[in-house]
Every structure is written in structure tokens, then in C-alpha cells.
Design a protein that fits this description.
By secondary structure, the chain is mainly α. It has a domain of about 35 residues. About 45% of the residues lie in helices and about 5% in strands. It is built from four helices and two strands. The chain is globular, with a radius of gyration of 13 Å.
């Protein structure tokens, strides 16, 4: 995710896109969630994907993110899930 979007999630799609949380320290994860909420993130858009091994999964999205950014010519986009 582009840094400008992380600190202003309502910039696109009324903030209805995802931000992943992962880590081994539940206190640290809670603090990250608290900080993200100060930026405007809603609980329903924060997805806890578990322990620190989830970080590898988030890093792997860089390949598609870079291709989309090149096509759109902007970093002001993010992914969302429909279920």
C-alpha cells in the first residue's frame, strides 16, 4: 500500500479496502490497530492474518501491486475482498 493511502484510507473507495495486521506480539498488534484507527481505518477493513509469518504473504503482493501501479500510473489504490 502507498504510504499516503495508509494515513488517509478514505482517499479512495470511502475507505472500504484492506490493511493487514500480523505479528507475534499481541500488545504490539493492538497498538498498530489503535494507530491505524487514528488515521481513519475501520475494524472491518483490518484483517489480522496471524503471526509474523504472515508478513511474507503480504510481501508477495508487491509483484501484482507494482504492475497495477504501472498501469494506473498512481499508487493511490488498494485491494478489497468480497465475500
Amino acid at each position: 500500500m502507498w504510504c499516503g493511502l495508509m494515513v488517509n484510507p478514505t482517499m479512495i473507495g470511502e475507505g472500504k479496502h484492506v490493511n493487514y495486521i500480523c505479528g507475534n506480539d499481541s500488545g504490539a498488534k493492538s497498538e498498530v490497530v489503535r494507530l491505524l484507527k487514528t488515521f481513519g481505518w475501520k475494524d472491518e477493513n483490518l484483517i489480522d492474518i496471524g503471526d509474523i509469518s504472515g508478513a511474507r504473504a503480504t510481501e508477495s503482493t508487491l509483484l501484482i501491486w507494482l504492475r497495477v501501479m504501472g498501469t494506473l500510473q498512481t499508487g493511490a489504490f488498494n485491494f478489497s475482498f468480497v465475500k
